[in-house]
Amino acid sequence: MFAALANPQRFMALSRWFAPLLGAGAVACALAGLWLGFAAPEDYQQGDTVRMMFIHVPAAWLSMFAYACLAGASFFGLVFRHPLADAAARAAAPLGAGFTFLALLTGSLWGKPMWGTWWVWDARLTSVLVLFLFYLAYIALQAAIEDETKAARAGAILALVGAVNLPIVKFSVDWWSTLHQTASVLRAGGPAMPAVYLAPLLLMGLAYTLTFGALWQVRVRAEVWRRRAAVLQLRNAG
Amino acid sequence: MLDLDMGKYAAFVWPSFAASLVVIGWMVADSLLRARKWRKAVERLEQDAPPR
Amino acid sequence: MRPLGILLRRELALAWGGGGGPLLALAFYACVATLLPLAVGSEPQRLAAIAPGSAFLALALASLLPLERLFERDYEDGALDLLALGGPPLELVCAVKCLAQWIATGAPLALLAPVVAIGLGAPPKLAFAIVASALLAGAGFAFVGGLGAALALGARRGGLLIAVIVLPLFAPPVIFGAGAIEAVAQGLNPLPALAYLAAYCLAAVAAGPVAMAAACRNALS
Question: Chains with ≥3 Cβ pairs under 8 A against B?
Fold first, then answer.
């Protein structure tokens, strides 16, 4: 598998059909998830706001997953010095930042009717905000350094240092007493949620993940073409 | 069958969905446009290749 | 060890010498602290409630000031190239630079911190806790700040970029350092918060120089 990813030609050939496939899968899962999500009964405690769980939780899952991908790609780029890995890291950042922003925004809109407040500085919300700031810092760092290779390596170091925030985000609701509820899905003992909510949630989670997968490939393709264009420009000029 | 009446929560639920659609839509559009822009640039530069 | 000792003396001399290094950070600290009552309102009770925390916040911000020049001076005049090539490993060189930063800037700021906090209305009995917490956190600020400085070498708008990189990383020491002071203020045990703070700072001291050296080599390549 890594051979396909390491070789730009093979990556382009693979992503040519794999990216649209993931995209189609994402749309299908989203439609199914939204259908089930709105067909589900309203929660006895949360009323209709429970529908927001189907877009808030997947966004939060992706905010962390995207960062893990970013950190993983950074690690490969740093260790194996492969430009495709650098491109993958750089490509994941805006997507992850977008998902994190959505997690924060939908969470705030869910918190107002449920908790009575748009925001609270508990461990979960604060650590996700810090995650968002890490994304911004990563993007800012890459943008500020002109030499691409240097920018990629500096970004990789920052991404790996910031990866320590991920377990903090995940376990913040367990380690500290927070207003944000504790884990209901990814926990020891299995999910603690009725199937009528769990099914649309997992479908939307899959939809969001497939969306990220598809868009990530598209952005890396764009990067491959951009580098090719730069090379061609030099060749044509010379 | 599909319960679309959110009652008093409508002001929170629908903006959340709208925002999600907008942000994800932006991610999709930006990614696809970016890919198309550079693919076209490569095609153009390959056409302009000086004769060998 | 001798070359490192010489390097440490050089770094301290540079920090204290030209341009009044720590004085600038101390003045900035005092200015931010002065702005706080103007922003929040000088009502004593409200100010006293946030005094230890805001003193800690201002401390973190003031620690940012000397960072831009930490590596930049040597990077620009070629000394960093020599440091990277010869003698002690670059990791130790970076560690010594951060240590000098802690001694030259972190320690004076830590000594000013109780004055600032008490000036903002914190009870004087917290003075020792504030100094201890600020001193310990200062190590974290210096080593993490050094990492930011190394990453931003050769980048545009270095100063602001360092702040953007480093401030999210400053969150844990601010949380735990201010938390330890709050614990003492409320009569609770400050040791858990101090333990987390110490753990963070140890991690920063141990891992920071490795990342810093990698970042420096990247900038020099």
Answer: A
* Structural domains of chain C, count: 1
pLDDT at A1: 47
The first and second tokens of residue C150, run together, are: 């190394």
Position C155 scores a pLDDT of 83
Report the pLDDT value the prediction gives residue A213, as an integer from 0 to 100.
95
Distances in Å between the Cα of A205 and the Cα atoms of A33, A74, B12, B26, C216 are: 9, 24, 21, 19, 40
Closest listed residue to residue C169, CA positions, set B38, A105, A159, A63: A159
Query: Residue B1: what pLDDT?
Result: 54
Q: Predicted confidence band at A2 (pLDDT cuts at 50, 70, 90)?
A: low
Residue in B10, B15, B35 nearest the CB of A221: B35
Predicted structure pTM score: 0.85
Range of the domain at C187: 2-220
Residues 6+ apart with CB under 8 A from A36: A196, A199, A200, A203
Question: What is the Cα–Cα distance from C79 to C77, expressed in whole angstroms?
Answer: 6
Interface residue of A34, A51, A139 to substitute, partner B, most B CBs within 10 Å: A51
Give the closest-approach CA distance of C173 to chain A in angstroms.
Answer: 13
Residues of chain C with pLDDT under 50: none
Which residue of chain B comes nearest to A221, CA vs CA?
A: B35
d(CA A66, CA C73): 37
The set of residues, in sequence order, having a beta carbon less than 8 Å from that of B35 and lying 6+ positions away, is A218, A219, A221, A222, A225
Query: What is chain B's length?
Result: 52
Per-window interface: A 26-65 vs B, CB < 8 A: 35, 38-39, 41-42, 47-49, 51-52, 55-56, 59
Three-class SS string for chain B?
CCCCCCHHHHHHHHHHHHHHHHHHHHHHHHHHHHHHHHHHHHHHHHHCCCCC
Inter-residue contact A118 to A108 (CB < 8 Å) = yes
Q: How close does chain A come to B21, measured CA to CA in Å?
A: 10
Q: Which residues of B touch A (CB under 8 A)?
A: 1-10, 12-13, 15-17, 19-20, 23-24, 26-28, 30-32, 34-35, 37-39, 41-42, 45-46, 48-50
Q: What secondary structure does DSSP assign to A160-219, as a single string?
A: HHHTTHHHHHHHHHHHS--SSPPPSSSSTT---S-HHHHHHHHHHHHHHHHHHHHHHHHH
For the stretch A29-70, pLDDT in tens is 999 999 888 888 877 777 778 888 899 999 999 999 999 999
Question: How distant is the Cα of A130 from the closest Cα of chain C, in angstroms?
Answer: 6
Neighboring chain C residues of A133 at a CB cutoff of 8 Å: 164, 167-168
Chain C residue numbers touching A149 (CB-CB < 8 A): 221
